Amino acid sequence: MSEDRIGVFVCHCGTNIAGPVDCHKVSEAVARTGVTLVREHSYMCTGGQSQIVSDIEEYRLDRIVVAACSPRIHEETFRAVSTVAGLNPFMMEMVNMREQCSWCHAHEPDEATQKAIDLVLMGVEKVKLNEPLIPLQVPMTKKALIVGGGISGIEASLQLADLGHQVILVEKGPTIGGKMAQLNKIFPDQNCSP
Amino acid sequence: MVDVGRHPNIELLTMCEVVEVKGYVGSFEVTLRKHPRYVTEDCTFCGECLQRCNVFAEDDFNVGRALRKAIYTPFLQSIPRQYVVDDKACIHFSEEGCEKCLEDCKKHAIDFSQTVEEETLHVGTVIAATGIRPYNPTGLYGYGDKRFPDVITSMELERMMSPEGPTNGKVIRPSTGERPGNVAFIQCAGSRSSKEGQLPYCSKLCCPNTVKNALLLKEPFPDIDIYVFHSGIRTSGNRQEKMFLEARRQGVIFVNAFPEVTEGHILTFSDPILGQDRPLQKQFDLVALAVGIVPAAQEMSNVLGVPLGKRGFIKEDNQLSPSSTPTSGIYFAGAVGSPSDIKQCIEQAGNAAMEVSKHFQKDFAELSPIIAKADTEKCTGCGKCGNHCLFGAIRIEDKVAVITEAMCRGCGNCLNACKFDAISIANYTEQQIKVQLIEALRKPEDKIIVFACHWCSYAGADFAGTSRLQYSPKTRIIKTMCSCRVRTDLIKYAFALGAPKVVVSGCHPGDCHYLDNNMFTKSRVTKLKEQLSSKGINPERLMLEWVSASEGQRFVETIRRMEQLEVDEDEIEMSKMIFSRPEKPKSRRKKVRLNPDRKST
Fold it and tell me: Which end of chain B is more exposed for a tag (fewer CB within 10 A), N or C?
């Protein structure tokens, strides 16, 4: 088999996933592909987190697949879990077994299970080719440029300046004030304008 | 305003234009063009110079309704507290010559030797707040025509009503100088119209502004007759509506029709409520056109490289980030982004300031590493990728594509444009999508492959699940950052593996999270569909559908429609055979690589 040490974590999400999808079947099917570890848990996002951390360490996993809910819900969670275990967060791939499988094929358990198996295998194949990535870090010049000295520019400048930040306010004309300064009174309370 | 002038953390630079912005979040290099003011910071605002100056010019602060001196201050409370010389009007710059103001300035604050200068700044973030200008209604309702001197704009009325204005706050008929006995307001002058040169949108603030002015006119002279011609008064918000009701209570007449202005300021109109067959006619002393607002965004858009929407306002990155442009570190606030009243401008300024402040909490800006990478071995420097990058992140240096990592958003449009497989997107490589297709199509039979973009369509599919909408379990969804990442080669590959049906799905036109990249998707998919037809394959087997994050139902309907399409085995075999053949251009590729100059742009 490949040299990769892949761990697959199959979440039941209570009965949200494990209701329609036969998670044991999914695990068995994935295990047959020769991955290093397949682990099931009723709630991977809560109790399962520490399990993932200890499994990564114990089995020296170098990439993992978390088959659970949508990455839009918990991708950041499991990336953080990977980081805790010393694994690059981009070596974690999520498989969407809930929003895009169990919930929308609730009355077709066999088909849903087959789809779940396919989705996990797709995730496993993808993660094999994942590369560890590091977010780009660029130094921050803590100075803000604000272009336009009307009410919006004035207000943004004051807000930032009051927070202690350095602001450069650039105005094309000879004065700030913008269109608001030209108004006589402003609605709805007929306050004076400038 | 005064606070800005004296805040120790604010450096105020007036008479300055931003002419160039380079770089990326955390490190923008900004070039300013400083125009001469001819008055230095030693000015004490004493006014001696003003007394001496004899040259007059049109006062643009008062919308040309008054004159001012050639050395002037736009208005009394101007910040900074320094006069300014209008070098277009001042005769010092003519053959005549004049230095009267200079002679009288005890502080020696006048300096005619100043010239245009350029300066470079280094900043971490930018907020564009260039605002608006009022719409110019010349030609509408007789405005600008000598026969109709008493037709003015809402801004002109505003200046007239100001105690500091050209009439010291008295509202008069420009033709006679007398107080008008009746006033007509015409709403939507040049707005909410599809006519050439007019504004198709509602500027939102003209209705409450007119109601405000009607009330202010009624205050000293309750007997003044006021008519407001409109096509639906829009005074949303609790206090604005109260103002409207108060105006009605005070006898302001709102007519749901637009009049025609004829000789003698006679307005002809049909009142839809009274429903006469014969139009009414009424002579008015003063006619105020409530004009909309035009964004002053074009220059900013060019300089900052941020996109404008169809109507010329700066376009928000997505509706949940109302101050963000697609470029990290560049924000906008106020009416340059959408018609906004003063209160909304202040709210948006706060929001933009918060976004900037979040950046300043850290010493570094962190950017997603899911970005494009160019293989210098394979790259020929043809420049196609650069032409397809709407973010300006790719340039050609020494005949090789160089990607500015901080500017790359990882959409993948460049990869699609590259004929030499020289570009990859981190963790969304061609191979990674292919292996997913292989797994998804182990038993291709009746499978539906769905390519869904990260931002909208994938979220739309999620929403279908969250709403427990049921659809075919034959679907296999593959996520990409943008639909433009889906190369036609990938679709062909899916067909070669025996896929009966393929759906490509992205954000709706205008909603794409990578500017207008989904339009590239559209043209590619349309082209491929034509290709399918020409090869005798039913083009319906490939579908392009826009699904937003909130359109779970639409996603399900798309799948259902695809499910109903019948594809027989022969058809699948045919497409499998056609697309399994090795691609022709392989041999051509080498030729081009041997002669890269031919393709350079």
Answer: C
Contact B439 A172 (CB under 8 A): no
pLDDT attached to residue B600: 42
Residues 6+ apart with CB under 8 A from B197: none
- 3-class SS letters over B58-124: ECHHHCCCCEEECEECCCCCCCCCCCEECCCCCHHHCCCCCCHHHHHCCCCCECCCCCCEEEEEEEC
Contact B171/A at CB under 8 A = no
**pTM > 0.90: yes or no:** no
Query: Is B126 in Cβ contact with A144 (below 8 Å)?
Result: yes
CA B27 to CA B125: how far, in whole Å? 8
Given A104, A134, A145, which is nearest B369 (Cβ)?
A: A134
Q: Cα distance from B591 to chain A (closest Cα, Å)?
A: 31
Confidence category of residue B590, pLDDT binned at 50, 70, 90 = very low
Query: Which amino acid makes up residue A77?
Result: T
Contacts of B238 by beta carbon, 8 Å cutoff, 6+ apart: none
Q: Which two tokens stand for residue B431?
A: 């191979």
Cα B342 to Cα A151: distance, rounded to the nearest angstrom:
7
Residue A154, chain B, CB below 8 Å: the answer is: yes
Domains of chain B, start order: 2-131 (no CATH), 133-294 (3.50.50), 369-426 (3.30.70.20), 428-579 (3.40.50)
The pLDDT score that the predictor gives to residue B366 is: 85
Q: Does B284 touch chain A (CB under 8 A)?
A: no
C-alpha count within 13 angstroms, C-beta hemisphere, residue B371: 21
How far apart CA B33 and CA B18 sit, in angstroms, is: 6
Of chain B residues 496-555, which have a CB less than 8 A from chain A?
A: none
Which residues are CB-neighbours of B361 under 8 A, at least 6 positions away? none
Show the CA angle centred on residue B406, arms to residues A130 and B18, nearest 5°.
165
ipTM above 0.90, yes or no: no
Q: Closest Cα of chain A to B159: distance in Å?
A: 7
Residues 66-95 of A with CB under 8 A from B: 70-72, 90
CB contact under 8 A, B349 and A118: no
Q: Closest partner residue to A135 among B165, B334, B366, by Cβ?
A: B366
Q: Cβ distance A120 to A32 under 8 Å?
A: no
Give B241-282 pLDDT, tens digit per residue.
Answer: 999 999 999 999 999 999 999 999 999 998 877 776 778 999
B426 touches chain A (CB under 8 A): yes
Q: How far apart are CA A23 and CA A31, in angstroms?
A: 12
Verify whether the Cβ–Cβ distance B79 to A176 is below 8 Å. Answer: yes
Is residue B539 helix, strand or coil?
helix
- What one-character DSSP code corresponds to residue B314? B
Tokens of A61: 């996993």
DSSP label of B231: S
| CA–CA distance, B575 with B540 (Å, rounded to integer) | 13
> b/e map of B434-449 (b: 16 or more CB within 10 Å)?
bbbbebbbeebeebbb
Q: Do A152 and B335 touch (CB under 8 A)?
A: yes
Angle between helices B488-496 and B430-440 (to 10 degrees): 30
**Is A177 an interface residue toward B (CB < 8 Å)?**
yes
Name the token pair of B2.
């005064």
- Record the tokens describing residue B226, joined without a space: 């006021």
User: Is A132 an interface residue toward B (CB < 8 Å)?
Assistant: no
The shortest C-alpha distance from A100 to chain B (Å) reads 6
Residue bearing tokens 């989705």: A119
Of B243, B296, B365, the CB nearest to A188: B243
pLDDT in tens, A43-89: 999 999 999 999 999 999 999 999 999 998 899 899 999 999 999 99
To test the contact with chain A by mutation, choose from B219, B356, B357, B359 the residue with the greatest count of A C-beta atoms within 10 A, namely B356
